[in-house]
Specification:
The chain is mainly alpha-helical and 268 residues long. The protein has 2 domains: 88 residues, no CATH class; 156 residues, no CATH class. The chain is 65% helix and 0% strand. The two termini are 28 Å apart.
């Protein structure tokens, strides 16, 4: 995609500004893809239609996006008479490593990171249980017993939801925590505006909400003789409470498109 095409797309009033900043990146389940510039640009990427998504072509697409963005930035700088080379050479870039380390040491962040590992271990240890349950449901289908189709669909959907948010919860929490530290350095700038950290925290909370519901579904379908699922739900509930205490305004953050009643087409 060239610069002209990107500028044309960016000027399309159908796109909701900033909607992609506070989403879970699950485009396949999003009702707002037709109103998302980020999704539209991905569709215009160099991926051949029907091709497999690999690390190589994803990297190529991201590289193209960065190259195009820098070209537009250079054009804007030239229009303003700014020499970007001099700006970069004279700039003192902040060291964000310390802020990230502080965020990583936050008990809530550590709990989010631990959760992602717990999910991975749980699915590895219970692969046989899923296989056994799948065979049992197949037999019930053949015998016409109960509603095994729904149970199978619920099991697969719940697993997908848990896996999708497995790492994203931690990533969004880290963005919220590091962003909160930046915002506290200049609080006056955020007196009249929503804080980005609250938006990121809200996405993490939504991921936790959906994950808890999904674990409860697995608990119903698979059973929980060991109590392992119940322990994971309890852990997520505590993480949710901690995050809500750190970001008390996160739940009321209005995400562009998703949380605006005037927008139509559903929400994520």
């Amino acid at each position: 995609m060239d610069r002209k095409r990107l500028l044309e797309m960016a000027g399309n009033p159908e796109f909701i500004p900033g909607i992609y900043n506070y989403c879970d990146r699950w485009c396949e389940r999003c009702a707002f893809t037709r109103r998302c510039l980020n999704y539209a640009t991905m569709q215009q990427s160099s991926f051949p239609e029907g091709s497999e998504i690999t690390d190589e072509n994803v990297f190529q697409s991201v590289k193209e996006s960065f190259d195009l963005t820098f070209e537009l930035l250079e054009d804007m700088a030239k229009e303003q008479g700014i020499d970007l080379d001099q700006v970069v050479q004279g700039a003192e870039l902040p060291d964000r490593s310390e802020k990230r380390k502080e965020a990583e040491q936050n008990p809530a962040a550590q709990a989010g990171y631990e959760y992602s590992n717990i999910v991975r271990t749980w699915f590895e240890q219970h692969a046989a249980l899923f296989e056994e349950k799948g065979k049992k449901l197949e037999n019930e289908m053949l015998l016409g017993i109960g509603d095994p189709e729904s149970a199978l669909a619920d099991m697969m959907d719940a697993s997908e939801v848990i896996r999708w948010h497995q790492y994203q919860i931690y990533v969004k929490m880290m963005r919220a925590l590091t962003g909160m530290e930046d915002e506290e350095e200049m609080p006056e700038l955020w007196e009249e505006y929503q804080r980005d950290s609250d938006g990121s925290a809200k996405v993490a909370l939504i991921g936790i909400d959906r994950s808890i519901t999904a674990w409860e579904t697995l608990q119903t379908v698979l059973g929980d003789e060991s109590g392992g699922i119940r322990k994971i739900i309890d852990r997520l509930s505590k993480l949710r409470t901690s995050l809500e205490q750190i970001f008390p305004r996160a739940r009321t953050f209005v995400r562009p498109g998703f949380d605006q009643e005037s927008e139509s087409g559903g929400s994520r």
